[in-house]
Amino acid sequence: MSDEARDLEARLAPPSSRDHRGDPIDREKWAGGLPEVDAKIPQVRVGKRWVNVLWVIPIAIVGLLVMVAVCQQLRKYGWMDDFIDKYPGSSSSYVPNMSDAGFPWWLRWQHLFNLLFMMFIIRAGWQILADHPRLYLNADSTPDSEWMRLRGPIPADRRDQKNARTIWTAKDDSTELPKWLGLPGIRHSIGFARWWHFSFDLLWVINGVLFFVLIFATGQWERLVPTSLDVFPNALSTMVQYGSLDFPQNEGWMYFNGLQIIAYFLTIFIAAPLALITGLLQAPTIAAKFGTGHGKLNRQVARTVHFCVMLWMVFFIAVHTVMVWITGLIGNLNHITLGDNGDSWWALVIYAVAMALIVFLWAKASPFTLKHPDKVQRMGKFMVGRIKGLMEWADPGAEYKEEDISPYLWPNGTLPEQNVFEEMKADNWEKWSLEITGLVENPTTLSYQDVLDLPKSEQITQHFCIQGWSGIAKWGGVRMEEILRIVKPMPNAKWVVFYSFAWGAEGPEGGKYYDCHKMEHMHHEHTILAYEMNGEPLLEAHGAPLRLRNENELGFKMVKWINAIEFVESFEHLGEGNGGFNEDHEYFGYRMPI
Questions:
Q1: Is residue 470 within a helix (H) or strand (E), and if so which, with residue range?
Q2: Which of 30, 146, 400, 402 could form a disulfide with 134 if both were Cys (CB 3.0 to 4.6 A apart)?
Q3: Is the pTM value of this prediction over 0.90?
Q4: Do residues 4 and 443 make contact, with C-beta atoms less than 8 angstroms apart?
């Protein structure tokens, strides 16, 4: 190893820090000591005004009271009695003629697993939202264009992107949630939240695929899929009967009424697939492959739809639970726990034990995460690390038009604090140099002018931040392919390490910011070292003098303020051995195409 490479690696987190990866999270030092900022009650934009969503509660109560009054009045009319007699809630036109009624054992277990998985998915999803607490219907994540937010507007005096030292970053915008609600609750803990979210997403998808196979293999699908237009008047009849508090007969052991069928169908066949699809549409590798960064399928629309699906799921679970309780609790519990049509009180005992287990896991998830952060990271890597890595095979060839360029690109990252950096910036980078070392035949040092003199490449591509915002920009710079041609990497060079002038967010003890990328990605035409953005020299807030663009990965891997590159066979000896600063200190993953 060259002296230059040794010097670079020595500036990372000291090897002794690996001994502390099992330590509990120190809240005061976490993420650079971000102060606590609680998420506010969500607000939604109505015209030009922001409205607190808590208004939904009194509106819903009034709406329910009005519905009960209206439905009870309707039940006094003969024509409504005739309508209910004709459409009692179920119909032979769509009620299945099933020889095997009831709920088989596999369905009962899947019902429990689904609830357990959804608990982790939803809580972690809330935590992910809290890291960029705004939802948009445009592709650009432009401040003040959001339709929903969990905190106030960006301070007006911190919007100037040319003033990098005071600008409001996406990390500044993050919020925290109560630990009983979010997972794990603390501010900017999106690394943990994503491991929980994706790991249980995988289990949920596996459970769902098995469910689809089994319901169509056994005929259970006939309970859930409308097969006649009669389902709609029967659903309306059922709604009036429930609303009048004179409930229809509970025939759930044999078949569901029209309202139940529509609700189950929407949840199972519409909402669940939509959750998967809109989740995938938030991946940089998908947008870079299929060009969904702009238009009706852009990431911010996907985030909004994903959020709305979550709201539907929470609503469905709440209403479903209430209906189980008020339409014959013991009988319903016998159906789903014991699998018979009896009235054994053992069903209530089993239900209570299952709910106690879920409450216990709910209560312990956040404390466990904060006490054993390395275990959560290892669990996530084991569960979904390789699967996420498969998405890196996609060819990130999508480019956009000049008119698609976002009017605003959120800044992020901890700026370099060294005096030498300030001196180079003041000197228009004439004294800056790019050191390239490691497993190469021709170790090289390039000046800023040397980089500018190399063949220039331009691309209009999309930036995807791990926090949730995104934006399209025109990047100008030199392809990494040109760098490879100059330095001639050795055959055993498998990874490329990009070192930043910036120290990590946890201060000098955390070492220099760095991140590792697969050698294969360096050959792609869209992997460049950018020194221009939107036709202008790169601003300091966005990584001047030089930053990486690798369109298959999330934004935190696009190292800014680059001053050195090293080619290595493995990154296990670097820092804490996880492939990058955020991977070491904030427990991200090193393969981030989603």
A1: strand 470-479
A2: 146
A3: yes
A4: yes
